[in-house]
Amino acid sequence: MNRLSIPLLAIVLTVCGAVPVTAQHEASTSAECEGKATIYAAPSYADFVFETQIEGASFEEAMAAALSFQDRVRDILAQRELPLISVEPATPAIPDLPDNLVVVSSTARLGLAGLGSGAGADLEFARICDAVAAAAGELQAAVAGPIILPGDREALIRSAVSTAMENAFPVCDALALSLKSSVYAVESVRVKDV
């Protein structure tokens, strides 16, 4: 994966399945086999977290300004014609009483599904990141991200588990053959890492 290209999501799973292997004239035996799978998907969303500290003459004044931060984030991103899906605010916090300071953040989710792939998509993603950085400057806020997300993470995980099980089967089957037996069933599947 090229570092400058739009990041593709990789979900790597390790699946262990205990597979009963029966030797002739002996009780049922089980073996544990491991399979791994990596599933790639184009990103659907990018989250950017904007955070700032707002100071006022009083906590009430600072909190009033903090409560409008989400709307300011939405307005500034919309002005920059970004593929804005949503802006989710976090509850403003008062970190220390004597300072009349309120910390506020909002997470902006931008759509990436229409970017496609290749150099044009890379340039468009770079333009989006430049616009987000400029918006953070205008908001006088720090920005974290992008946090790249798939459209349906659970479906990708299910697909990866299925592929990892398929990858584990040949090892179990070879083990069973070496014992002059065969694989009858998968007793359990344990996902070790996602």
Spell out the key features of this protein.
single chain, 194 residues, alpha+beta, four-stranded antiparallel sheet, three-stranded antiparallel sheet, 35% helix, elongated, disordered N terminus
Describe the structure.
35% of the residues lie in helices and 36% in strands. The protein is built from four helices and seven strands. It is of the alpha+beta class and 194 residues long. The radius of gyration is 25 Å and the shape is elongated. A four-stranded antiparallel sheet has the order 4-5-3-6. Strands 2-1-7 form a three-stranded antiparallel sheet. The longest helix has 26 residues, at 153-178.
What's the helix and strand layout?
Blueprint: E1 9-22, E2 28-41, E3 45-55, H1 59-67, H2 69-79, E4 84-89, E5 101-111, H3 119-139, E6 142-149, H4 153-178, E7 188-193
Antiparallel strand pairs: 1-2, 1-7, 3-5, 3-6, 4-5
Helix pairs in contact: 2-3
